[in-house]
Design a protein that fits this description.
Number of strands of chain A: 9
Structural class of chain A: alpha/beta
Distance between the termini of chain A: 32 Å
CATH topology of the largest domain in chain A: Rossmann fold
Number of domains of chain A: 2
Strand order of the largest sheet of chain A: 3-2-1-4-5-6
Helix content of chain A: 40-55%
Number of helices of chain A: 12
Shape of chain A: globular
CATH architecture of the largest domain in chain A: 3-Layer(aba) Sandwich
Order of helices and strands of chain A: EHEHEHEHEHEEEHEHHHHHH
Largest interface: A-B, 91 and 91 residues
Radius of gyration of chain A: 21 Å
Strand content of chain A: 5-15%
Oligomer: homodimer
Largest sheet of chain A: 6 strands, parallel
CATH class of the largest domain in chain A: Alpha Beta
Chain lengths: 297, 297
Protein backbone atom coordinates (compact mmCIF):
# COMPACT_ATOMS: atom_id res chain seq x y z
CA UNK A 1 0.00 0.00 0.00
CA UNK A 2 1.37 3.41 -0.98
CA UNK A 3 2.15 5.95 1.70
CA UNK A 4 0.07 9.07 2.16
CA UNK A 5 2.76 11.36 0.74
CA UNK A 6 3.31 9.56 -2.56
CA UNK A 7 0.89 10.01 -5.53
CA UNK A 8 -1.07 6.84 -6.28
CA UNK A 9 -1.25 7.56 -10.00
CA UNK A 10 0.79 9.42 -12.59
CA UNK A 11 -2.05 10.74 -14.66
CA UNK A 12 -5.74 10.66 -13.73
CA UNK A 13 -8.10 11.36 -16.63
CA UNK A 14 -11.55 12.61 -15.65
CA UNK A 15 -14.11 12.11 -18.42
CA UNK A 16 -16.89 14.55 -17.48
CA UNK A 17 -16.56 17.38 -14.99
CA UNK A 18 -19.92 17.84 -13.24
CA UNK A 19 -20.46 17.80 -9.46
CA UNK A 20 -18.70 14.45 -8.95
CA UNK A 21 -15.92 14.96 -11.53
CA UNK A 22 -15.04 18.40 -10.21
CA UNK A 23 -15.14 17.18 -6.60
CA UNK A 24 -12.71 14.37 -7.54
CA UNK A 25 -10.44 16.97 -9.20
CA UNK A 26 -10.41 19.06 -6.00
CA UNK A 27 -9.81 15.99 -3.82
CA UNK A 28 -7.01 14.58 -6.03
CA UNK A 29 -5.19 17.90 -5.79
CA UNK A 30 -5.86 18.37 -2.07
CA UNK A 31 -4.53 14.92 -1.19
CA UNK A 32 -1.80 14.75 -3.86
CA UNK A 33 -3.15 11.56 -5.40
CA UNK A 34 -1.80 12.10 -8.92
CA UNK A 35 1.01 13.94 -10.71
CA UNK A 36 -1.40 15.20 -13.35
CA UNK A 37 -5.14 15.73 -13.66
CA UNK A 38 -6.36 15.56 -17.28
CA UNK A 39 -9.90 16.77 -17.89
CA UNK A 40 -12.17 15.99 -20.81
CA UNK A 41 -15.72 17.11 -21.30
CA UNK A 42 -17.83 17.26 -24.43
CA UNK A 43 -19.21 20.79 -24.23
CA UNK A 44 -16.74 23.60 -24.94
CA UNK A 45 -18.26 26.02 -22.44
CA UNK A 46 -18.04 23.44 -19.64
CA UNK A 47 -14.41 22.72 -20.50
CA UNK A 48 -13.70 26.46 -20.50
CA UNK A 49 -15.38 26.74 -17.09
CA UNK A 50 -13.23 23.89 -15.72
CA UNK A 51 -10.12 25.65 -17.03
CA UNK A 52 -11.23 28.95 -15.57
CA UNK A 53 -11.73 27.24 -12.18
CA UNK A 54 -8.28 25.63 -12.50
CA UNK A 55 -9.68 22.17 -11.77
CA UNK A 56 -7.03 20.26 -13.73
CA UNK A 57 -3.57 20.45 -15.26
CA UNK A 58 -4.57 19.70 -18.86
CA UNK A 59 -7.87 20.09 -20.75
CA UNK A 60 -9.11 18.14 -23.76
CA UNK A 61 -12.17 18.27 -25.95
CA UNK A 62 -11.00 14.94 -27.40
CA UNK A 63 -11.36 12.07 -24.89
CA UNK A 64 -8.67 10.02 -26.67
CA UNK A 65 -6.09 12.75 -25.97
CA UNK A 66 -7.26 12.94 -22.31
CA UNK A 67 -6.73 9.23 -21.66
CA UNK A 68 -3.38 9.05 -23.48
CA UNK A 69 -0.80 8.07 -20.89
CA UNK A 70 -3.34 7.98 -18.05
CA UNK A 71 -2.96 5.12 -15.58
CA UNK A 72 -6.40 5.87 -14.08
CA UNK A 73 -9.39 6.87 -16.22
CA UNK A 74 -12.61 7.76 -14.37
CA UNK A 75 -15.90 8.03 -16.26
CA UNK A 76 -17.79 10.91 -14.60
CA UNK A 77 -20.61 11.18 -17.15
CA UNK A 78 -24.25 10.09 -16.67
CA UNK A 79 -24.33 6.28 -16.92
CA UNK A 80 -26.22 6.44 -20.23
CA UNK A 81 -23.21 8.14 -21.86
CA UNK A 82 -20.60 5.57 -20.77
CA UNK A 83 -20.88 3.25 -23.76
CA UNK A 84 -20.30 5.88 -26.46
CA UNK A 85 -17.33 7.32 -24.55
CA UNK A 86 -15.87 3.84 -24.01
CA UNK A 87 -16.19 3.05 -27.74
CA UNK A 88 -14.22 6.19 -28.54
CA UNK A 89 -11.36 5.72 -26.09
CA UNK A 90 -11.02 1.90 -26.03
CA UNK A 91 -8.57 1.62 -28.98
CA UNK A 92 -6.25 4.14 -27.28
CA UNK A 93 -6.06 2.36 -23.91
CA UNK A 94 -2.77 0.67 -23.03
CA UNK A 95 -2.38 -2.51 -20.96
CA UNK A 96 -2.10 -1.74 -17.24
CA UNK A 97 -4.57 1.16 -17.34
CA UNK A 98 -7.30 1.11 -14.71
CA UNK A 99 -10.80 2.22 -15.71
CA UNK A 100 -13.30 3.32 -13.09
CA UNK A 101 -16.50 5.36 -12.92
CA UNK A 102 -18.86 7.00 -10.43
CA UNK A 103 -22.28 5.82 -11.66
CA UNK A 104 -25.27 5.03 -9.46
CA UNK A 105 -26.02 1.74 -11.30
CA UNK A 106 -23.21 -0.80 -11.57
CA UNK A 107 -24.33 -3.81 -13.66
CA UNK A 108 -24.92 -1.60 -16.70
CA UNK A 109 -21.42 -0.12 -16.36
CA UNK A 110 -19.87 -3.56 -16.56
CA UNK A 111 -22.17 -4.57 -19.45
CA UNK A 112 -21.49 -1.38 -21.41
CA UNK A 113 -17.74 -0.92 -20.86
CA UNK A 114 -16.15 -4.33 -20.20
CA UNK A 115 -16.63 -5.90 -23.66
CA UNK A 116 -14.91 -2.91 -25.28
CA UNK A 117 -11.72 -2.95 -23.20
CA UNK A 118 -8.42 -4.29 -24.61
CA UNK A 119 -6.65 -7.11 -22.76
CA UNK A 120 -4.75 -6.01 -19.69
CA UNK A 121 -7.02 -3.02 -18.97
CA UNK A 122 -8.65 -3.30 -15.51
CA UNK A 123 -12.26 -2.29 -14.87
CA UNK A 124 -13.01 -1.33 -11.23
CA UNK A 125 -16.49 0.26 -11.14
CA UNK A 126 -17.07 2.62 -8.22
CA UNK A 127 -20.07 4.38 -6.72
CA UNK A 128 -19.27 7.16 -4.28
CA UNK A 129 -22.50 7.62 -2.29
CA UNK A 130 -22.25 11.36 -2.09
CA UNK A 131 -23.90 14.29 -3.75
CA UNK A 132 -25.68 17.57 -3.31
CA UNK A 133 -28.64 19.16 -5.08
CA UNK A 134 -26.20 21.23 -7.17
CA UNK A 135 -24.72 20.30 -10.55
CA UNK A 136 -21.87 21.39 -12.81
CA UNK A 137 -18.13 22.07 -12.46
CA UNK A 138 -18.67 25.00 -10.05
CA UNK A 139 -20.52 22.71 -7.63
CA UNK A 140 -17.56 20.47 -6.72
CA UNK A 141 -15.58 20.57 -3.48
CA UNK A 142 -12.81 18.39 -2.04
CA UNK A 143 -14.71 17.29 1.09
CA UNK A 144 -17.72 15.82 -0.76
CA UNK A 145 -16.56 12.24 -0.21
CA UNK A 146 -15.36 12.59 3.37
CA UNK A 147 -17.05 10.13 5.73
CA UNK A 148 -19.24 8.79 2.92
CA UNK A 149 -19.38 5.27 1.52
CA UNK A 150 -17.77 4.35 -1.78
CA UNK A 151 -18.90 0.98 -3.14
CA UNK A 152 -16.65 -0.87 -5.59
CA UNK A 153 -18.14 -3.63 -7.77
CA UNK A 154 -15.25 -5.31 -9.61
CA UNK A 155 -15.91 -8.66 -11.29
CA UNK A 156 -14.21 -11.59 -9.46
CA UNK A 157 -11.51 -11.97 -12.14
CA UNK A 158 -10.26 -8.36 -12.02
CA UNK A 159 -6.61 -7.71 -11.07
CA UNK A 160 -6.43 -7.46 -7.26
CA UNK A 161 -3.76 -4.74 -7.31
CA UNK A 162 -5.94 -2.52 -9.49
CA UNK A 163 -8.88 -3.00 -7.11
CA UNK A 164 -6.70 -2.16 -4.12
CA UNK A 165 -5.33 0.99 -5.77
CA UNK A 166 -8.84 2.27 -6.53
CA UNK A 167 -9.91 1.38 -2.97
CA UNK A 168 -6.90 3.28 -1.60
CA UNK A 169 -7.74 6.23 -3.85
CA UNK A 170 -11.20 6.50 -2.25
CA UNK A 171 -9.87 5.95 1.26
CA UNK A 172 -7.41 8.81 0.72
CA UNK A 173 -10.24 11.21 -0.17
CA UNK A 174 -11.90 10.23 3.10
CA UNK A 175 -14.43 7.56 2.08
CA UNK A 176 -15.23 4.19 3.65
CA UNK A 177 -14.82 1.56 0.95
CA UNK A 178 -17.11 -1.46 0.55
CA UNK A 179 -16.77 -4.11 -2.13
CA UNK A 180 -19.86 -5.94 -3.39
CA UNK A 181 -21.38 -7.70 -6.37
CA UNK A 182 -22.79 -5.31 -9.00
CA UNK A 183 -26.27 -6.88 -9.02
CA UNK A 184 -26.47 -6.74 -5.26
CA UNK A 185 -25.38 -3.09 -5.33
CA UNK A 186 -28.16 -2.29 -7.79
CA UNK A 187 -30.75 -3.99 -5.60
CA UNK A 188 -29.65 -2.20 -2.40
CA UNK A 189 -29.42 1.20 -4.09
CA UNK A 190 -32.82 0.76 -5.75
CA UNK A 191 -34.24 0.78 -2.22
CA UNK A 192 -32.00 3.30 -0.47
CA UNK A 193 -31.63 5.80 -3.27
CA UNK A 194 -33.48 5.22 -6.52
CA UNK A 195 -36.97 4.67 -5.10
CA UNK A 196 -36.66 7.62 -2.64
CA UNK A 197 -35.65 9.88 -5.53
CA UNK A 198 -38.50 8.65 -7.73
CA UNK A 199 -41.01 9.23 -4.92
CA UNK A 200 -39.61 12.69 -4.20
CA UNK A 201 -39.74 13.67 -7.87
CA UNK A 202 -43.33 12.43 -8.05
CA UNK A 203 -44.64 14.23 -4.98
CA UNK A 204 -43.03 17.51 -6.00
CA UNK A 205 -44.44 17.11 -9.50
CA UNK A 206 -47.90 16.39 -8.07
CA UNK A 207 -47.65 19.67 -6.15
CA UNK A 208 -46.54 21.63 -9.22
CA UNK A 209 -49.70 20.54 -11.02
CA UNK A 210 -51.89 22.23 -8.42
CA UNK A 211 -51.19 25.59 -9.97
CA UNK A 212 -51.41 29.19 -8.80
CA UNK A 213 -52.25 30.14 -5.24
CA UNK A 214 -52.30 26.61 -3.85
CA UNK A 215 -48.78 25.99 -5.15
CA UNK A 216 -47.58 29.19 -3.49
CA UNK A 217 -49.04 28.05 -0.18
CA UNK A 218 -47.47 24.63 -0.54
CA UNK A 219 -44.10 26.34 -0.86
CA UNK A 220 -44.85 28.72 2.01
CA UNK A 221 -45.73 25.89 4.40
CA UNK A 222 -43.22 23.40 3.00
CA UNK A 223 -41.35 23.01 6.30
CA UNK A 224 -43.99 20.53 7.47
CA UNK A 225 -42.49 17.65 5.46
CA UNK A 226 -42.63 18.64 1.80
CA UNK A 227 -39.40 20.64 1.97
CA UNK A 228 -37.21 17.55 2.44
CA UNK A 229 -38.65 16.11 -0.77
CA UNK A 230 -37.94 19.26 -2.80
CA UNK A 231 -34.24 19.00 -1.97
CA UNK A 232 -34.05 15.40 -3.18
CA UNK A 233 -36.13 16.28 -6.26
CA UNK A 234 -33.70 19.04 -7.28
CA UNK A 235 -30.99 16.54 -8.26
CA UNK A 236 -29.61 16.45 -11.79
CA UNK A 237 -32.37 15.36 -14.26
CA UNK A 238 -30.04 13.73 -16.82
CA UNK A 239 -28.22 11.68 -14.21
CA UNK A 240 -31.49 10.46 -12.72
CA UNK A 241 -33.12 9.73 -16.05
CA UNK A 242 -30.17 7.44 -16.77
CA UNK A 243 -30.40 5.78 -13.36
CA UNK A 244 -34.01 4.76 -13.95
CA UNK A 245 -33.39 3.64 -17.50
CA UNK A 246 -30.41 1.55 -16.39
CA UNK A 247 -31.60 -0.04 -13.16
CA UNK A 248 -35.08 -0.71 -14.44
CA UNK A 249 -35.74 -4.18 -13.05
CA UNK A 250 -34.59 -3.54 -9.49
CA UNK A 251 -36.46 -0.22 -9.42
CA UNK A 252 -39.70 -1.69 -10.81
CA UNK A 253 -39.47 -4.55 -8.29
CA UNK A 254 -39.16 -2.32 -5.23
CA UNK A 255 -41.65 0.16 -6.69
CA UNK A 256 -44.15 -2.70 -6.98
CA UNK A 257 -43.72 -3.55 -3.31
CA UNK A 258 -43.98 0.11 -2.33
CA UNK A 259 -47.20 0.52 -4.35
CA UNK A 260 -48.75 -2.51 -2.66
CA UNK A 261 -47.88 -1.15 0.76
CA UNK A 262 -49.21 2.31 -0.11
CA UNK A 263 -52.43 0.77 -1.40
CA UNK A 264 -52.88 -1.05 1.91
CA UNK A 265 -52.48 2.22 3.85
CA UNK A 266 -54.82 4.02 1.47
CA UNK A 267 -57.43 1.36 2.05
CA UNK A 268 -56.94 1.66 5.82
CA UNK A 269 -57.48 5.43 5.61
CA UNK A 270 -60.60 5.01 3.50
CA UNK A 271 -62.03 2.38 5.85
CA UNK A 272 -60.96 4.22 9.00
CA UNK A 273 -58.77 1.32 10.15
CA UNK A 274 -56.81 3.13 12.87
CA UNK A 275 -55.24 -0.06 14.19
CA UNK A 276 -53.50 -0.89 10.92
CA UNK A 277 -52.28 2.70 10.56
CA UNK A 278 -50.97 2.80 14.12
CA UNK A 279 -49.20 -0.56 13.85
CA UNK A 280 -47.48 0.48 10.61
CA UNK A 281 -46.38 3.84 11.97
CA UNK A 282 -45.07 2.26 15.19
CA UNK A 283 -43.05 -0.35 13.26
CA UNK A 284 -41.14 2.18 11.19
CA UNK A 285 -39.65 3.88 14.28
CA UNK A 286 -37.34 0.90 14.80
CA UNK A 287 -35.74 1.51 11.41
CA UNK A 288 -34.92 5.07 12.45
CA UNK A 289 -33.21 3.70 15.54
CA UNK A 290 -31.18 1.41 13.28
CA UNK A 291 -30.10 4.38 11.17
CA UNK A 292 -29.07 6.31 14.27
CA UNK A 293 -27.22 3.31 15.72
CA UNK A 294 -25.37 2.89 12.40
CA UNK A 295 -24.32 6.56 12.71
CA UNK A 296 -25.96 7.39 9.36
CA UNK A 297 -28.42 9.93 10.84
CA UNK B 1 -51.95 44.69 21.92
CA UNK B 2 -50.29 43.72 25.21
CA UNK B 3 -46.70 44.74 25.84
CA UNK B 4 -43.91 42.18 25.88
CA UNK B 5 -43.42 42.41 29.66
CA UNK B 6 -47.03 41.79 30.71
CA UNK B 7 -48.50 38.26 30.82
CA UNK B 8 -51.18 37.71 28.17
CA UNK B 9 -53.15 35.25 30.29
CA UNK B 10 -53.70 34.58 33.97
CA UNK B 11 -53.88 30.84 33.78
CA UNK B 12 -53.00 28.68 30.78
CA UNK B 13 -54.25 25.10 31.01
CA UNK B 14 -52.39 22.58 28.87
CA UNK B 15 -54.42 19.41 28.26
CA UNK B 16 -51.77 16.89 27.22
CA UNK B 17 -48.03 17.29 27.74
CA UNK B 18 -46.23 15.60 24.83
CA UNK B 19 -43.68 17.26 22.55
CA UNK B 20 -45.93 20.22 21.68
CA UNK B 21 -47.52 20.66 25.11
CA UNK B 22 -44.19 20.58 26.91
CA UNK B 23 -42.64 22.97 24.37
CA UNK B 24 -45.53 25.39 24.96
CA UNK B 25 -44.93 25.09 28.74
CA UNK B 26 -41.25 25.97 28.29
CA UNK B 27 -42.08 28.85 25.93
CA UNK B 28 -44.83 30.30 28.18
CA UNK B 29 -42.40 30.36 31.09
CA UNK B 30 -39.49 31.70 29.03
CA UNK B 31 -41.54 34.58 27.62
CA UNK B 32 -43.68 35.21 30.72
CA UNK B 33 -46.94 34.71 28.84
CA UNK B 34 -49.06 33.59 31.82
CA UNK B 35 -49.13 33.89 35.61
CA UNK B 36 -49.80 30.19 35.98
CA UNK B 37 -49.31 27.06 33.89
CA UNK B 38 -51.76 24.29 34.78
CA UNK B 39 -51.00 20.86 33.36
CA UNK B 40 -53.34 17.95 32.87
CA UNK B 41 -52.56 14.61 31.33
CA UNK B 42 -54.41 11.32 31.57
CA UNK B 43 -51.56 8.98 32.43
CA UNK B 44 -50.18 9.22 35.98
CA UNK B 45 -46.60 8.47 34.97
CA UNK B 46 -46.62 11.19 32.31
CA UNK B 47 -48.02 13.70 34.84
CA UNK B 48 -45.33 12.67 37.32
CA UNK B 49 -42.70 13.15 34.63
CA UNK B 50 -44.04 16.66 33.85
CA UNK B 51 -43.91 17.50 37.57
CA UNK B 52 -40.39 16.09 37.87
CA UNK B 53 -39.33 18.27 34.91
CA UNK B 54 -41.02 21.29 36.53
CA UNK B 55 -42.92 22.09 33.35
CA UNK B 56 -45.88 23.77 35.09
CA UNK B 57 -47.06 25.39 38.29
CA UNK B 58 -49.94 23.03 39.03
CA UNK B 59 -50.64 19.44 37.94
CA UNK B 60 -54.02 17.72 37.60
CA UNK B 61 -55.15 14.23 36.69
CA UNK B 62 -58.66 15.69 36.43
CA UNK B 63 -59.03 17.96 33.35
CA UNK B 64 -61.96 19.82 34.98
CA UNK B 65 -59.71 20.95 37.83
CA UNK B 66 -57.02 21.99 35.33
CA UNK B 67 -59.33 24.28 33.33
CA UNK B 68 -60.97 25.79 36.41
CA UNK B 69 -60.16 29.51 36.32
CA UNK B 70 -58.09 29.20 33.14
CA UNK B 71 -58.55 32.00 30.60
CA UNK B 72 -56.69 29.99 27.94
CA UNK B 73 -57.14 26.24 27.52
CA UNK B 74 -54.99 24.51 24.91
CA UNK B 75 -55.80 20.98 23.77
CA UNK B 76 -52.41 19.29 23.21
CA UNK B 77 -53.69 15.75 22.72
CA UNK B 78 -53.87 13.78 19.44
CA UNK B 79 -56.84 15.17 17.47
CA UNK B 80 -58.79 11.94 17.93
CA UNK B 81 -58.88 12.55 21.69
CA UNK B 82 -60.26 16.12 21.54
CA UNK B 83 -63.94 15.25 21.61
CA UNK B 84 -63.88 13.14 24.76
CA UNK B 85 -61.79 15.73 26.58
CA UNK B 86 -64.12 18.54 25.43
CA UNK B 87 -67.17 16.61 26.68
CA UNK B 88 -65.57 16.31 30.10
CA UNK B 89 -64.50 19.93 30.54
CA UNK B 90 -67.29 21.80 28.68
CA UNK B 91 -69.68 22.12 31.65
CA UNK B 92 -66.89 23.68 33.76
CA UNK B 93 -65.93 26.38 31.21
CA UNK B 94 -66.86 29.96 32.11
CA UNK B 95 -67.80 32.68 29.61
CA UNK B 96 -64.78 34.58 28.36
CA UNK B 97 -62.51 31.52 28.30
CA UNK B 98 -60.53 30.96 25.09
CA UNK B 99 -60.11 27.40 23.82
CA UNK B 100 -57.33 26.53 21.41
CA UNK B 101 -55.46 23.44 20.26
CA UNK B 102 -52.38 22.37 18.30
CA UNK B 103 -53.79 19.71 15.97
CA UNK B 104 -52.64 19.05 12.41
CA UNK B 105 -56.22 18.86 11.06
CA UNK B 106 -58.50 21.81 11.73
CA UNK B 107 -62.02 21.11 10.40
CA UNK B 108 -62.40 18.13 12.70
CA UNK B 109 -61.38 20.25 15.70
CA UNK B 110 -64.18 22.70 15.01
CA UNK B 111 -66.66 19.88 14.36
CA UNK B 112 -65.71 18.00 17.52
CA UNK B 113 -65.32 20.85 20.01
CA UNK B 114 -67.49 23.79 18.95
CA UNK B 115 -70.94 22.20 19.51
CA UNK B 116 -69.97 21.34 23.08
CA UNK B 117 -68.88 24.82 24.19
CA UNK B 118 -71.09 27.01 26.40
CA UNK B 119 -72.05 30.49 25.15
CA UNK B 120 -69.32 33.09 25.48
CA UNK B 121 -66.45 30.57 25.18
CA UNK B 122 -64.20 31.37 22.20
CA UNK B 123 -62.72 28.66 19.97
CA UNK B 124 -59.50 29.67 18.17
CA UNK B 125 -57.98 26.53 16.63
CA UNK B 126 -54.24 26.70 16.03
CA UNK B 127 -51.69 24.60 14.20
CA UNK B 128 -48.07 25.35 15.02
CA UNK B 129 -46.11 23.87 12.09
CA UNK B 130 -43.25 22.61 14.17
CA UNK B 131 -42.10 19.27 15.44
CA UNK B 132 -39.26 16.86 15.81
CA UNK B 133 -39.03 13.09 15.55
CA UNK B 134 -39.14 12.90 19.38
CA UNK B 135 -42.23 12.52 21.56
CA UNK B 136 -43.20 12.94 25.20
CA UNK B 137 -42.78 15.60 27.93
CA UNK B 138 -38.96 15.28 27.93
CA UNK B 139 -38.84 16.19 24.24
CA UNK B 140 -40.10 19.77 24.58
CA UNK B 141 -38.01 22.92 24.33
CA UNK B 142 -38.88 26.63 24.30
CA UNK B 143 -37.40 27.38 20.86
CA UNK B 144 -39.46 24.78 18.96
CA UNK B 145 -41.82 27.42 17.54
CA UNK B 146 -39.25 30.08 16.75
CA UNK B 147 -39.31 31.14 13.10
CA UNK B 148 -42.01 28.59 12.30
CA UNK B 149 -45.54 29.20 11.03
CA UNK B 150 -48.57 28.96 13.27
CA UNK B 151 -51.86 28.79 11.36
CA UNK B 152 -55.07 29.88 13.13
CA UNK B 153 -58.43 28.76 11.73
CA UNK B 154 -61.16 30.57 13.69
CA UNK B 155 -64.69 30.58 12.29
CA UNK B 156 -65.73 34.02 10.94
CA UNK B 157 -68.04 34.70 13.92
CA UNK B 158 -65.43 34.18 16.62
CA UNK B 159 -64.62 37.09 18.97
CA UNK B 160 -61.88 39.19 17.33
CA UNK B 161 -60.13 39.98 20.62
CA UNK B 162 -59.81 36.29 21.44
CA UNK B 163 -58.31 35.62 18.00
CA UNK B 164 -55.84 38.49 18.43
CA UNK B 165 -54.76 37.29 21.87
CA UNK B 166 -54.05 33.79 20.58
CA UNK B 167 -52.21 35.29 17.58
CA UNK B 168 -50.14 37.45 19.94
CA UNK B 169 -49.42 34.38 22.10
CA UNK B 170 -47.88 32.62 19.10
CA UNK B 171 -46.00 35.71 17.94
CA UNK B 172 -44.47 36.03 21.42
CA UNK B 173 -43.08 32.46 21.24
CA UNK B 174 -41.44 33.44 17.95
CA UNK B 175 -43.88 32.17 15.32
CA UNK B 176 -45.24 33.82 12.18
CA UNK B 177 -49.02 33.75 12.38
CA UNK B 178 -51.30 33.10 9.41
CA UNK B 179 -55.10 33.01 9.55
CA UNK B 180 -57.02 30.84 7.12
CA UNK B 181 -60.19 28.84 6.64
CA UNK B 182 -60.12 25.39 8.29
CA UNK B 183 -60.98 23.48 5.10
CA UNK B 184 -58.32 25.31 3.15
CA UNK B 185 -55.78 24.56 5.89
CA UNK B 186 -56.64 20.87 5.68
CA UNK B 187 -56.17 20.86 1.91
CA UNK B 188 -52.79 22.66 2.02
CA UNK B 189 -51.47 20.51 4.85
CA UNK B 190 -52.62 17.31 3.15
CA UNK B 191 -50.11 18.17 0.44
CA UNK B 192 -47.25 19.71 2.42
CA UNK B 193 -47.34 17.43 5.43
CA UNK B 194 -49.82 14.55 5.50
CA UNK B 195 -48.95 13.01 2.12
CA UNK B 196 -45.16 13.33 2.71
CA UNK B 197 -45.56 11.58 6.05
CA UNK B 198 -47.71 8.81 4.55
CA UNK B 199 -45.17 8.25 1.78
CA UNK B 200 -42.27 8.23 4.23
CA UNK B 201 -44.02 5.74 6.51
CA UNK B 202 -44.74 3.53 3.49
CA UNK B 203 -41.24 3.48 2.04
CA UNK B 204 -39.67 2.74 5.42
CA UNK B 205 -42.22 0.00 5.99
CA UNK B 206 -41.47 -1.46 2.56
CA UNK B 207 -37.81 -1.60 3.55
CA UNK B 208 -38.55 -3.28 6.89
CA UNK B 209 -40.30 -6.10 5.06
CA UNK B 210 -37.11 -7.00 3.19
CA UNK B 211 -35.74 -8.74 6.25
CA UNK B 212 -32.32 -9.75 7.47
CA UNK B 213 -29.13 -8.84 5.63
CA UNK B 214 -30.77 -6.66 3.00
CA UNK B 215 -32.42 -4.52 5.69
CA UNK B 216 -29.03 -4.07 7.41
CA UNK B 217 -27.51 -2.87 4.15
CA UNK B 218 -30.40 -0.50 3.54
CA UNK B 219 -29.66 1.09 6.90
CA UNK B 220 -25.91 1.10 6.24
CA UNK B 221 -26.28 2.92 2.92
CA UNK B 222 -29.27 5.03 3.95
CA UNK B 223 -27.46 8.34 3.38
CA UNK B 224 -28.25 8.10 -0.34
CA UNK B 225 -31.85 9.28 0.14
CA UNK B 226 -33.60 6.77 2.40
CA UNK B 227 -32.30 8.40 5.59
CA UNK B 228 -34.43 11.53 5.16
CA UNK B 229 -37.54 9.36 5.01
CA UNK B 230 -36.66 7.47 8.19
CA UNK B 231 -36.58 10.73 10.13
CA UNK B 232 -40.06 11.71 8.94
CA UNK B 233 -41.32 8.17 9.55
CA UNK B 234 -40.18 8.25 13.18
CA UNK B 235 -42.91 10.74 14.17
CA UNK B 236 -45.48 9.88 16.83
CA UNK B 237 -47.71 6.97 15.61
CA UNK B 238 -50.84 7.96 17.56
CA UNK B 239 -50.71 11.55 16.39
CA UNK B 240 -50.34 10.47 12.77
CA UNK B 241 -53.00 7.78 12.95
CA UNK B 242 -55.40 10.50 14.06
CA UNK B 243 -54.29 12.87 11.30
CA UNK B 244 -55.13 10.33 8.61
CA UNK B 245 -58.42 9.33 10.21
CA UNK B 246 -59.43 12.98 10.54
CA UNK B 247 -58.31 14.51 7.26
CA UNK B 248 -59.40 11.56 5.19
CA UNK B 249 -60.92 13.28 2.19
CA UNK B 250 -58.14 15.77 1.50
CA UNK B 251 -55.49 13.05 1.99
CA UNK B 252 -57.27 10.56 -0.30
CA UNK B 253 -57.66 13.26 -2.94
CA UNK B 254 -53.98 14.23 -3.06
CA UNK B 255 -52.95 10.58 -2.68
CA UNK B 256 -55.03 9.79 -5.76
CA UNK B 257 -53.21 12.44 -7.78
CA UNK B 258 -49.84 11.25 -6.47
CA UNK B 259 -50.63 7.64 -7.40
CA UNK B 260 -51.58 8.68 -10.94
CA UNK B 261 -48.33 10.60 -11.32
CA UNK B 262 -46.28 7.73 -9.91
CA UNK B 263 -48.01 5.30 -12.28
CA UNK B 264 -47.06 7.53 -15.22
CA UNK B 265 -43.39 7.52 -14.15
CA UNK B 266 -43.50 3.76 -13.57
CA UNK B 267 -44.83 3.28 -17.07
CA UNK B 268 -42.09 5.54 -18.46
CA UNK B 269 -39.43 3.48 -16.69
CA UNK B 270 -40.91 0.22 -17.96
CA UNK B 271 -41.13 1.53 -21.53
CA UNK B 272 -37.74 3.25 -21.40
CA UNK B 273 -39.27 6.68 -22.06
CA UNK B 274 -36.27 8.83 -21.12
CA UNK B 275 -37.83 12.02 -22.42
CA UNK B 276 -40.80 11.86 -20.06
CA UNK B 277 -38.52 11.07 -17.12
CA UNK B 278 -36.15 13.91 -17.95
CA UNK B 279 -38.93 16.45 -18.44
CA UNK B 280 -40.52 15.54 -15.11
CA UNK B 281 -37.21 15.68 -13.23
CA UNK B 282 -36.31 19.03 -14.80
CA UNK B 283 -39.70 20.56 -13.88
CA UNK B 284 -39.40 19.79 -10.18
CA UNK B 285 -36.20 21.84 -9.81
CA UNK B 286 -38.23 25.05 -10.12
CA UNK B 287 -40.21 24.15 -7.01
CA UNK B 288 -36.98 23.82 -5.05
CA UNK B 289 -36.02 27.31 -6.19
CA UNK B 290 -39.39 28.54 -4.92
CA UNK B 291 -38.73 26.94 -1.53
CA UNK B 292 -35.31 28.57 -1.35
CA UNK B 293 -36.70 31.97 -2.44
CA UNK B 294 -39.40 31.68 0.24
CA UNK B 295 -36.60 31.09 2.79
CA UNK B 296 -38.11 27.75 3.80
CA UNK B 297 -35.05 25.70 2.78
Amino acid sequence: MATESKPLFKRVALLGIGLIGSSIAHAVRRHGLADEIAIHTRRTETLDKARELGLGDTYFSDPVAAVDGADLVIFCVPVGANKAVAETIAPALRPGTTISDVGSCKRVVINDIKPLLPDGVHLVPAHPIAGTEHSGPEAGFAELFKGRWCILTPEPDVDADAVERVAEFWRRVGSDVEIMDADHHDQVLAITSHLPHLIAYTIVDTATELGGDLQKEVIKFSASGFRDFTRIAASDPVMWRDVFLNNREAVLDILGRFTEDLTALRRAIRRGDGELLHDTFARTRDVRRGVIDAKQA
